Description:
The complex is a heterodimer.
Chain A: H1 2-20, E1 30-36, H2 42-53, E2 58-64, H3 72-82, E3 86-90, H4 91-99, E4 116-121, E5 140-144, H5 149-159, E6 164-169, H6 174-190, E7 193-198, H7 212-221, E8 226-229, H8 233-250, E9 254-256, H9 259-263, E10 268-271, H10 274-289, E11 301-302, E12 307-311, H11 312-318, H12 326-329, E13 331-333, H13 335-339
Helix pairs in contact in A: 2-10, 7-8
Chain B: H1 2-64, H2 75-85, E1 89-96, E2 101-106, H3 112-121, E3 132-134, E4 137-146, E5 149-159, H4 160-213, H5 216-230, H6 236-269, H7 272-287, H8 303-308, H9 311-322, H10 328-334, H11 344-373, H12 375-395, H13 399-426, H14 433-483, H15 501-509, H16 511-542, H17 547-573, H18 578-591, H19 602-630, H20 632-638, H21 640-692, H22 702-705
Antiparallel strand pairs in B: 1-2, 1-5, 3-4, 4-5
Amino acid sequence: MMLFLNRFLCFSVFQLLLFSGLEAAEAKPYRIYAITFRGMTDVEKGFVDYFKTRKIPVDIVFRDLARDANKMPGFLDEIRRTKPDLVYTWGTSVTLGVVGSVGKVEPAKHITDIPVVFTLVAAPVLAGITNDLKSSGRNLTGVVHVASTEAQMRAMSSYRPFHTLGVLYTPTEQNSLVTLAELKAVGAKSGFKVIERAFKLDADKKPIANGADVLVRELKQEGVEWLYLPPDSFLGTLAQKTIIPAAMELGLPTFAATEQLMQAGALTGLVSRYYSIGQFTAYKAEQILVGKVPPARIPIESLSRFSFQVLLPAAKRLNLPPPLSLFDYAEILTAQEAETP
Amino acid sequence: MNQAYLGKMYWRLTGLVMLVMLLVLGGLSFFTQSAFEQRLLPDLVQKAVTVGASTRSLILRAVDYGIDYSNLYGVSSTFAELRKENPEFAYIAATNERGVVLFESGERAPGADQYYSQIALSTPTDASATPVLLGAQYVVSLPLMIDDKALGMLHFGIDQAYIKGVMREVLLDVLVVLLVSVFFTFELLHFVVGNKLEAQFGALAETVDFLGSGNFVHASRSSADARKAADYGLVTGELALSQKIDAALSRLFERYRELALRVSAAAKQGSTLSQQIDTMFSALSGKYRFAPEDSAFLPSAIEAPYLERIRTPLFVFLLAEELTRSFVPGYANYLLVDVPFWAKQIVIGLPIVLFMAIVALAQPYLGPWSYRIGRKNAMLIGAVLATVGFMGTALAGDLYALLFWRSLCALGYAMVFVAAQGYVLDHTGEHNRARGFALFVGVFMVATICGPPIGGILADNIGYRWSFLVSGLVALVSIAIIMGLPQERQSDGLRELPLSFADFKRLIKNQRFTSLSLFAAIPAKIILTGFCFYLIPLYILSLGNSPAMAGRLLMAYAVIMVLVVPLAARFADLNIRRERLVALGLCVSALGGFLMPFFDSIWALFVLVVLLGFGQSLSIAAQGALVSDFCRSEECNLGEGAVYGAYRLLERTGNVLGPLLASIFLVLFGYGYTFALISLLVLLASLVFALASGVFRAPRSPEKVEA
């Protein structure tokens, strides 16, 4: 109850600030060093817009990893050289590259003396970024973008009840393994079966796209009623081109954990708007920069509200119209909306 | 004469009020029934139209997105959810343009298909929201149109049984309120005129008694009391009567004085005649009392107004607690927190168990305490504590807070209870103590009749928290009334000594006393508190009924008590052995519980409550009297108060055990068998008691009967 209240208050304060446009101008702009994983997304748009609305002068340097971990040392050197006021990291891989995982931090390599705000991390505890969401105990805080697995499963079964769930995962991605374990735990509790298939790996133990559509077919043959699309980076790269089309062809509905996967054409999902996530991330950054609050004192949170999205063309193609009650509160996406990035 | 006359007055008043009540009730039920035709149905139809409009817009939105009307998904489950939120709808359906049912939830009324296809033919706009009775449902039909094209219709079936249920609830509430208002009226009557009226009657009756016994001095005093009471100008006839008696008495005294003067004058002459006169005069003075030589003695009729004054504050205070009876377990359930290793049902019972335990344990100490600080002060402190307790309970955040505040209520309750009891003791003598306690018990019974049903209605309408607040306000009012009590005359008070352990041990050794306590008194309390205070309120909620229903059942129990106790007392005076009454009463009280594993209904509970009330009424007076019968020698040595103190203490452990046992059984066996199991225990106890006290043996010899 108290926890809920805290969350609520926190969120309300955030909203209040968002729309009040309080004067917080100072002569010198705050310098932010931002690293993205796969170019600019709506998250960065929301992040930048928040500071504009609040009239907080910021000077943001954007760097893109472009899914290439080899670029990371160069970025870290640049951070050490330029000494920004705050570092912004997008996704689990970038974040871990900058701050290191708990217990394995190398001060010479990782950034410890500059506050870090991460965003779009699905499971910070399981990924080893922190041990506790209430306080990282480190010089960092951030925003989680996925709803709890339990809430997602509830949403899925409210669309169409199911007994068997299919999921694809990347065996080398920590995040992916963790999600799978959690799915199985929820399944054991709520009485559904989880059938999983791992992406194939090449000689360098890197996941490969080949055969992903075959995996989907296998799952369908095993009798899965839904294909769950977890917040998995590798899966994200294959969703739009391979996985979702394969599922559509088989008449298998897909459920998305993130807005990115919704945009890739999934039937439905319980997601946070990337733009809102960006704003919320900026709010946390503001607390550190302007409010001078130590990052360890700022809890790691998700937005308190998620949107239940339904891609109508997919629903029609699968002949799985959304339940009547969803028309009351779901965000129904028609084709044009879905195409916008 | 006093009692008989008052009794007659009471019954006449009761009859009158009952008659008025019945007339009002009849009129009310007639008007509410017809009001239903005029108000309730159109309201429900309006609700169907409102709910229908939002359902329609939802369906149209889906169709607007290009989903085929007949291909919609999850419509029936949406209907089912609507019905759960609005229990008045027994049925919701959507038909297509030909009147064929596509989606539905609930039971389709007979003839519905025909009706649907029939109205589908008429232009849809004609199908206004006019209810049509099909079977046991009023069906309201609304058109579904998209761009002037008929898609189909929505149909809402309003349940006739639901409407009847609402009416029944209203009528029952009205009945309860009327019944309660009868008792309230009496209490109010007592408050306004009763004190003086009764005092006046009392004094007058004593005047007559004194006149009859030839004690003219005291008769004169009593008459003066009566006149004093009559000065309030309420019963002028009585005033005139006592004035006449006064006049006659003063004439009598005048003549006695004259006679005495003449006798002494004659005595001075010293003749034999005068000696004879003197002897006769002494004989006369011996037989009757004219002279005020023993004026130190004051007749006790004057006590009556003081005694009566305890009535209203006690009633108001007890009412505050009784109001909460029907919903304390429900409130505990509402505030429930997870207590490790404790089953939920037991935790829910804790507030009652704790309350009873505090009352039981505190009483032996509170008696002497209230004597020391004064009864009025003790009552004031108790009422203040309870008021704070009620307010705190109303605001309690969780079960722990509830336990704390209820403990405060319990302490306050025990204080007021004991102090009021002491007050009655202080203001009664040997001759009217029984009347004093009858008053005490009477007030208690009226509070148990009025409190639970009103509390239930309150909880039903304004919620648990506000209802506790109402209790708090009632307790606050009682503080104000207690402040109006007279300051007592300390010297008159009866000193009660706390029971010593040695005395207790001595009593326990008395086997008859022990068997009475263990196998009659404690089981009687276990079944009372276990059933009435714990199981019934919870069971009623589990059946989907409101706290108001629990209140009504508790009221039924109290009403049975009030009706049967006087009858049972008459039995006890007849040649029926008290042991038999006690055993029989216990058996009867246990019978109802055996119904519960088989019937899941309010009616079974009603039978249970009636049997329980009947059984308890049969045995309650006899139990009390048996204590005295069984403990003659102990009473001589320890005093009546100590013996009864020990007995009550033992008895009250039953109050604590009742909810505790019930909650443990409930965890293990569920409601039905818990009722039956407790009944079985009580039945066995009554058998043991019957055997131990020789109920089945031949009737006692005559000299024992008088005991």
